[in-house]
Amino acid sequence: MTFGIQPIHIVIIILVALLVFGPKRLPEIGRTVGKMLNEFRNGTREVTDSLRAEVNGSVNPVKTNPPAASIPTVPASGQSFTIQPPSIAPAPAGKFCIHCGAANTPEALFCNQCGTKMPENTIKPSDPSILGRQG
User: Fold this and answer.
1) What is the mean pLDDT of the chain?
2) Which end of the chain has fewer beta carbons closer than 10 Å to its terminal beta carbon, N or C?
3) Looking at the predicted structure, is the pLDDT value of residue 81 above 90?
4) Cα-based distances in Å from 57 to 50, 54, 60, 63, 69
5) What is the C-alpha separation between 102 and 113, in angstroms, rounded?
6) d(Cα 92, Cα 99) in Å, to the nearest integer?
7) Contact partners, residue 104, CB within 8 Å, separation at least 6
8) Domain residue ranges in the chain
9) Nearest to 101 by CA among 86, 116, 84, 89
10) DSSP bridge partners of 95
């Protein structure tokens, strides 16, 4: 049996409920408990189905065919095939907070998101020793 409950335990629980609630209210309580269990099962089933749909990557379980333009094609013999690398976005200019990682303007003294003091620029482009110039 489930949860280690034996049939004798169920009989004892029913007898105690009969003594506490009386024979007139016992069917009503049984119906109420049955409805609650049914609603709980339906709710857990809906949540499980929606989570499975999200994990599978589609909210709508109906499968659709991808458009023809997105299917890669192999060039015929004699044609050249070149692979273009993905474009790399330039790094954003400015300072980044050492505490939260938020981007700030180069002139910022404090982080605009968490308020942490920004580190001072210790390297200056005009410093000749960094650029290898002696001067």
Assistant:
1) 75
2) C
3) no
4) 11, 5, 9, 11, 21
5) 7
6) 18
7) 94, 95, 96, 97, 111, 112, 118
8) 2-55, 94-135
9) 116
10) 104
